[in-house]
């Protein structure tokens, strides 16, 4: 029987007894597709806007930090509620899971309304603070103003997407996300070129696609034995918010610091690349989109691991968690190694896809991409460790790993390295951040794996003794 046809109890039994590696692959296929398509439509904005001007391309990169913040809040509520739901379903506590689903969703939607209104009130100072130069500012305001209108839908869509995944319904989550992404890719050229809306057309296409995804994901919660969102289950108590913080803080650290890192990158690229005009900001924007696309497959694979990890940990089946973790790390490393080799060799053609007319954008972007490829395979351990720690409720250790790449290391590096190496320092920041993050993630991940191995050994011994007594 397919997972989509199972009721809730059948799905839980399946998640706890199907071979762990096979289960990860089944969960990962739709999440990888969702992440790749979502990342592709983010790249589509950059691709089509790149046909307008270097300033428009840079503006999309500047606004990306705001979108990263919106995603950070969405993942905070989505992962926070989803991790809790997964563990409670594994433990058979269904009422608690229903209340958390509604609490996470409604909280995200209300936060999205607040953030969107606040951003529109302070639109121009926000655009300047994000790193817009005077020539980029008009494009940034035009693009950002429309994006902010869709904030509550974007934020709560991420919550529904993650809640569905953590219930083992990755295929339903995929339908909502992919449909919106495909719609965005189709609307981009229509609004930008046919209706001659320019950069505003790209923003409108993104906002409409997010609203469509939101509607579809709400419908998906009513299928396949998933938890339906009922407003009567909304329980804004400290208990549920504390659990959301425990499960979602690593995501907020990872995505939120990513937003801050993007802003600092824009400022550093604009300052140390001032002799190249807006080319440095545009180049780093393109490289970030390419790197995000490559990283999305890894994130999708990890998201396939998370529901397996959460439910089996909640049921006390630690050996299955360890088995799934090492399976993911091994195959993710090989995949990233191949991907890094391709990115290093074809760095110039990849950057040229977005801005063929500007030689400085190509030169700056190609070197930055090659430098990132050098340490990219290390993300296999970093990302999988982060997702394991987050899924099993190890909030402190998960937050440290999540904050390391874009916060603990990138932010100091982006201010220190350019002082010594100029624009080259900006280009090499992510590489050194990945290396240092790996050195942090290894001991933190291994410590928890050893704890689970010890706990699993005790349980196996107790089970053997019980069997002998019988």
The strand count comes to 0
Number of helical segments with 4 or more residues: 17
Low-confidence stretches: 460-470
Radius of gyration: 22 Å
* Average pLDDT, all residues: 86
Can you give the helix content as a percent range? over 70%
Largest sheet geometry:
none
How far is the first residue's CA from the last residue's CA? 35 Å
Name the overall outline.
Answer: globular
Secondary-structure element pattern, one letter each: HHHHHHHHHHHHHHHHH
- The class by helix and strand makeup works out as mainly alpha
Q: What proportion of the residues form beta strands (DSSP E)?
A: under 5%
Characterization of the model:
It is a multi-pass membrane protein. GO terms for molecular function: antiporter activity; xenobiotic transmembrane transporter activity. This protein is mostly helical. It is 85% helix and 0% strand. It is built from 17 helices and no strands. The longest helix has 47 residues. The two termini are 35 Å apart. The C terminus is likely disordered.
In short:
It holds the Pfam family MatE. By secondary structure, this protein is mostly helical. The protein contains 17 helices and no strands.
Key structural traits:
single chain, 470 residues, mainly alpha
Layout of secondary structure:
Layout: H1 8-17, H2 20-49, H3 54-91, H4 94-121, H5 123-129, H6 137-149, H7 151-166, H8 170-194, H9 199-220, H10 238-272, H11 279-314, H12 318-345, H13 347-352, H14 359-375, H15 379-391, H16 395-421, H17 423-469
Helix pairs in contact: 2-3, 2-8, 2-11, 3-4, 3-6, 3-7, 3-10, 3-11, 4-7, 5-6, 6-9, 7-8, 7-9, 8-9, 10-11, 10-16, 11-12, 11-14, 11-15, 12-14, 12-15, 12-17, 14-17, 15-16, 15-17, 16-17
């Amino acid at each position: 029987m397919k997972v989509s046809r199972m009721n809730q109890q059948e799905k839980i039994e399946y998640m706890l007894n199907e071979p762990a590696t096979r289960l990860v692959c089944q969960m990962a296929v739709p999440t990888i597709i969702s992440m790749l398509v979502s990342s592709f439509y983010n790249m589509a904005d950059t691709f089509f806007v790149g046909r307008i001007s270097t300033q428009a391309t840079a503006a999309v990169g500047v606004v990306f930090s705001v979108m990263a913040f919106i995603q950070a809040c969405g993942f905070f509520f989505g992962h926070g509620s989803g991790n809790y739901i997964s563990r409670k379903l594994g433990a058979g506590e269904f009422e608690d899971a229903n209340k958390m689903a509604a609490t996470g969703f409604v909280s995200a939607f209300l936060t999205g309304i607040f953030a969107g209104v606040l951003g529109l009130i302070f639109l121009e100072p926000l655009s300047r603070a994000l790193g817009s130069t005077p020539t980029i500012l008009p494009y940034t305001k035009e693009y950002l103003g429309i994006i902010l209108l869709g904030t509550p839908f974007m934020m709560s869509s991420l919550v529904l997407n993650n809640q569905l995944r953590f219930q083992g319904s990755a295929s339903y989550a995929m339908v909502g996300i992919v449909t919106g992404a495909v719609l965005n890719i189709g609307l981009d050229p229509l609004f930008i070129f046919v209706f001659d809306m320019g950069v505003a057309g790209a923003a409108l296409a993104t906002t409409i696609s997010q609203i469509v995804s939101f509607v579809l994901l709400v419908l998906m919660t009513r299928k396949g034995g998933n938890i339906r969102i009922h407003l009567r289950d909304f329980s804004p108590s400290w208990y549920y918010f504390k659990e959301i913080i425990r499960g979602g803080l690593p995501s907020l650290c990872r995505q939120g610091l990513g937003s801050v890192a993007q802003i600092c990158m824009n400022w550093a690229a604009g300052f140390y690349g001032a002799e190249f005009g807006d080319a440095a900001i545009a180049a780093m924007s393109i490289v970030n989109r390419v790197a995000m696309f490559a990283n999305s497959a890894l994130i999708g694979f990890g998201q396939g691991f998370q529901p397996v990890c959460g439910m089996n940990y909640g049921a006390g089946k630690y050996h299955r968690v360890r088995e799934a973790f090492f399976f993911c790390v091994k195959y993710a490393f090989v995949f990233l190694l191949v991907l890094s080799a391709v990115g290093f060799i074809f760095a110039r053609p990849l950057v040229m896809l977005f801005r063929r007319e500007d030689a400085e954008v190509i030169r700056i972007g190609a070197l930055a991409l090659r430098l990132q490829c050098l340490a990219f395979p290390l993300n296999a351990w970093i990302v999988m460790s982060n997702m394991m720690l987050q899924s099993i409720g190890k909030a402190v250790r998960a937050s440290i790993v999540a904050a390391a790449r874009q916060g603990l290391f990138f932010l100091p590096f982006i201010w220190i390295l350019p002082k010594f190496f100029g624009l080259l320092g900006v280009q090499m920041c992510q590489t050194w951040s990945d290396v240092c993050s790996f050195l942090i993630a290894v001991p933190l991940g291994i410590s928890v794996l050893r704890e689970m191995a010890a706990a699993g050994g005790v349980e196996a011994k107790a089970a053997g003794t019980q069997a002998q007594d019988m």
